[in-house]
Design goal:
Blueprint lengths: L4 H6 L1 H5 L46 H6 L17 E6 L5 E2 L1 E2 L6 E2 L2 E4 L4 E4 L2 E2 L9 E7 L5 E5 L8 E5 L3 E6 L1 E6 L4 E6 L2 E7 L2 E2 L9 E9 L10 E8 L13 E5 L10 E3 L3 E2 L2 H10 L5 E5 L1
Parallel strand pairs: 12-21, 15-19, 18-20
Antiparallel strand pairs: 1-8, 1-11, 2-7, 3-4, 5-6, 8-9, 9-10, 12-13, 13-14, 16-17, 16-21, 17-18
């Protein structure tokens, strides 16, 4: 039965502290071999700093004041002028919560993560600090003509959700790194502009938990040993989610990632829960070279 919106909103506060699980469990359809310590799920990780809604010293920006701060609007180049260019907004250090809008100078909106499989909607505030202790990074889809507003991809379901934010909250970065993940070929390619840096056979989602075809981006990097040996040396979180699972890891959002592994012998197989695994030496190279905000195109 579809849970009522009013009841779900009553659970919104609890949702803030729910772990975003990385949908990567399972080495194969059989039980793990004796002696392996690969976890079935990621344990909850609390934020490293409490969210302060009523702190008078916390950074808040009134929409009218932010707009007025730009007396001479500067035209912004088209986002797609260079097809390989990524524009990523990194939230400023003094910001704690980012408001979202339906349009430039539009109405403030509440963002919901919509779990269509289980019929659940939970409020998802744009906190400046992720559950892994990293700062929020949002990929720009387009700017308004003034540059004061940007339409950005939001890391919630359904995949590809966007909203407008005020650029005064952020610092912009541009680069031309991008990643293609070919589900049909089980192949990961990493580029800088048109230069191919990595071509690697990988592990991807099994038939019942396939790696979804989406266009997204790397939204943060997490040390693999902080999550467990099954994740290898690095986890590059992707701002997209499994489309076959409602939850993962004990109730968390089934987030995708490109990460290392403690089972390199599985390369070329479809045995994960949706995440993409590559050998540790490869993920270490990617983590060192590729910045947050890099586009990830998962294709079939």
């Amino acid at each position: 039965m579809q849970t009522s919106r009013s009841a779900l909103r009553a659970l919104a506060v609890l949702a803030v502290f729910t772990m975003i699980a990385v949908a990567c469990g399972g080495g194969s359809d059989s039980e793990p071999a004796a002696g392996t310590d690969a976890p079935a799920s990621v344990a909850p990780i609390a934020t490293t700093a409490p969210i302060q809604f009523d702190d008078e010293e916390a950074s808040t920006i009134d929409p009218d004041e932010a707009a007025a701060a730009f007396e001479t609007p500067t035209p912004v180049p088209e986002v797609d002028a260079d097809p390989n260019e990524n524009i990523v907004l990194h939230v400023n250090d003094d910001v704690q919560l980012v408001p979202a809008f339906d349009a430039p100078n539009g109405s403030n909106i509440t963002i919901y993560d919509i779990n269509a499989i289980d019929g659940v909607e939970l409020e998802y505030p744009l906190y400046a600090e992720t559950v892994f202790g990293n700062r929020l990074a949002l990929r720009v889809e387009e700017y308004d003509t003034s540059g004061n507003w940007a339409r950005v991809q939001i890391p919630v379901r359904p995949n590809g959700t966007t909203a407008w934010v005020q650029t005064a909250f952020f610092t912009e970065e541009r680069h031309d790194y991008h990643i293609t993940i070919d589900v049909s070929e089980n192949l990961v390619n990493v580029y800088k502009g048109d230069e191919l840096l990595v071509e690697q056979i990988a592990v991807m989602g099994r038939d019942s938990r396939p790696t979804p075809v989406v266009r997204s981006y790397i939204d943060e990097k997490i040390a693999g040993d902080s999550l467990g040996p099954a994740y290898g040396s690095w986890v590059l979180s992707i701002a997209a989610f499994s489309e076959a699972l409602g939850t993962f890891g004990g109730g968390g959002m089934p987030k995708l990632a490109l990460h290392g592994t403690n089972q390199p012998d599985l390369m070329g197989q479809y045995v994960s829960s949706g995440c993409v695994r590559v050998p540790n030496e490869i993920i270490e190279f990617i983590a060192e070279r590729v910045p947050v905000g890099a586009t990830v195109d998962i294709i079939a």
